[in-house]
């Protein structure tokens, strides 16, 4: 039956599946995090109508951006740099499950 089978996560799944697995592990290991953390953008004393959502904020100081595609591109770095600037977090990590092996990149402002 389709509904009762299980599948171990591996290469080629949707990004949301990896986020769910990461959230499970954070909860299992009691690691403090926020998922889909909303960051508002202030400009000249007002909050702009558009905002960012970081995939995870871990330990209140690490932005974790999860990808599942071929390669990490410049736009991914730009997003994390924006998240770091707005959140004041000192460290960002991009993790990509879309390659033959896990790829991680560290971003520091």
Written overview of the protein:
With 109 residues, the protein is of the alpha+beta class. The protein has a single domain (15-108), classed as Lambda Exonuclease, Chain A, CATH 3.90.320.10. It is 26% helix and 39% strand. A five-stranded mixed sheet has the order 1-2-3-4-5, sandwiched between helices. Strand 2 and strand 3 (62-67) form a beta hairpin. The chain is globular and about 45 Å long.
Number of domains: 1
Sheet with the most strands: spatial strand order: 1-2-3-4-5
CATH level-3 fold name: Lambda Exonuclease, Chain A
Q: Kindly report the average pLDDT value.
A: 88
Strand portion, in percent?
35-45%
Helix content: 25-40%
Structural class: alpha+beta
> Order of helices and strands, N to C?
HEEEHEE
For the sheet with most strands, the description reads: 5 strands, mixed
Q: Helix count, per DSSP?
A: 2
CATH C-level class is Alpha Beta
CATH architect. name: Alpha-Beta Complex
Low-confidence stretches: 1-5
> Care to count the β-strands?
5
Spatial gap, N to C terminus: 49 Å
Radius of gyration: 15 Å
Characterize the overall form.
globular
Observed structural traits:
109 residues, alpha+beta, Lambda Exonuclease, Chain A, 5-stranded mixed β-sheet, 2 helices, 5 strands, 26% helix, globular, disordered N terminus
